[in-house]
Design brief:
5 helices, 3 strands
Length: about 120
């Protein structure tokens, strides 16, 4: 469909036209704007009207293509988010209970010491 270069690849079309002609109405202009915000699509603005080209959409589709493992979602969690996810994968049980009990006991001891002074 879009894998061969064609002279029409540089012709401007509005976002609505692109949604109808290229995607058969399966997506909306908002979806194209979202891909632009993600850095996957070049949008050309003339006045108030936003345009794209078939060539730009071809580039976007290659960037949005998922890899076979399904990891190509365009999202890479930050280090802190990965750490949080790893922590949440810990099995529930005595270790988690012991850690929270130890923290609670330490806080209680600190509070009692502060009350004395």
């Amino acid at each position: 469909m879009l894998d061969v270069l064609h002279p029409a690849d540089d012709v401007l079309m509005t976002l609505a036209e692109a949604c109808d002609k290229v995607f058969g109405g399966a997506i909306t202009p908002s979806s194209l704007r979202a891909e632009h915000k993600r850095g996957n699509l070049v949008i050309i603005r003339v006045g108030r009207t936003q345009f794209v080209t078939r060539g730009g959409i071809k580039d976007m589709l290659s960037k949005c293509q998922l890899d076979p493992q399904g990891r190509g979602l365009g999202f890479t969690p930050s280090r802190s988010a990965r750490t949080g996810m790893e922590v949440s994968k810990r099995p529930a049980g005595s270790f988690a209970t012991e850690a929270s009990s130890a923290a609670r006991d330490a806080l209680s001891t600190t509070l009692q010491a502060l009350k004395r002074h």
